[in-house]
Write a structure and sequence with these properties.
The complex is a heterodimer. By secondary structure, chain A is an all-beta fold. Chain A is built from no helices and 11 strands. The radius of gyration of chain A is 14 Å and the shape is globular. The chains are: A mainly beta, B mainly beta.
């Protein structure tokens, strides 16, 4: 089945640790995104990538890093510099292009990260 | 600052009724509009996209776009308890690049049996 796979679904991080969230898509989408969702704050863009080997910071990139070595994969690392990482993390992908060309964003199932 | 606003709710409707969810946006040049449904603890799933003024129907769902008044709405006919969820409105002020996609905070819908 085509889709976006995120892993792990639940992750616990100790203070000072880096953790990496995996995101893989087989939709042949060029663009991939990472969002963070906190209660009452809606979706906030962390990083996005339009093509392989290129990515751009979103609105809340501090304390996070990404790579895009393959079209299918866009892992997110939550570093120890991120002081409040407990949140629901959503990976998404879309085709690129103009209006009406199928630029709809589709989401993976999400990963819950908790600091312990 | 470009904004997308939704009434947080909760909006409560009886089973079988029509649920009406509204979303207003500030950027008059916005091009693409999306409605997503999000169940508690789950990721958002697309219900509908709309790009042109007017109505777009898909099963029990109808999206309505009025660019002059800068609002987009979602009607759910014959509401079912399984429709109980948070509905997110997203607006793309540009064409294509979802980098600028702006999300509303969502409206919580409760359909009572």
């Amino acid at each position: 089945d085509g889709g976006i796979t995120q892993s792990p679904k639940y992750l616990f991080r100790k203070e000072g640790q880096n953790v990496t969230l995996s995101c893989e898509q087989n939709l042949n989408h060029d663009a991939m995104y990472w969002y963070r969702q906190d209660p009452g704050q809606g979706l906030r863009l962390i990083y996005y990538s339009q093509i392989v080997n290129d990515f751009q910071k979103g609105d809340i990139a501090e304390g996070y890093s990404v790579s895009r070595e393959k079209k299918e994969s866009f892992p997110l690392t939550v570093t120890s510099a991120q002081k409040n990482p407990t949140a629901f993390y959503l990976c998404a992908s879309s085709r690129t292009g103009g209006r009406n060309s199928g630029n709809t964003i589709y989401f993976g199932e999400g990963s819950w990260l908790t600091v312990v | 600052q470009k904004e997308v606003e939704q009434n947080s709710g909760p909006l409560s409707v009886p089973e079988g009724a029509i649920a009406s969810l509204n979303c207003t946006y500030s950027d008059r040049g916005s091009q693409s509009f999306f409605w997503y449904r999000q169940y508690s603890g789950k990721s958002p799933e697309l219900i509908m996209s709309i790009y042109s003024n007017g109505d777009k129907e898909d099963g029990r769902f109808t999206a309505q776009l009025n660019k002059a008044s800068q609002y987009v709405s979602l009607l759910i006919r014959d509401s079912q308890p399984s429709d109980s969820a948070t509905y997110l409105c997203a607006v793309n002020p540009g064409a294509g690049n979802n980098r600028k996609l702006i999300w509303g905070l969502g409206t919580s819908l409760a359909v009572n049996p």
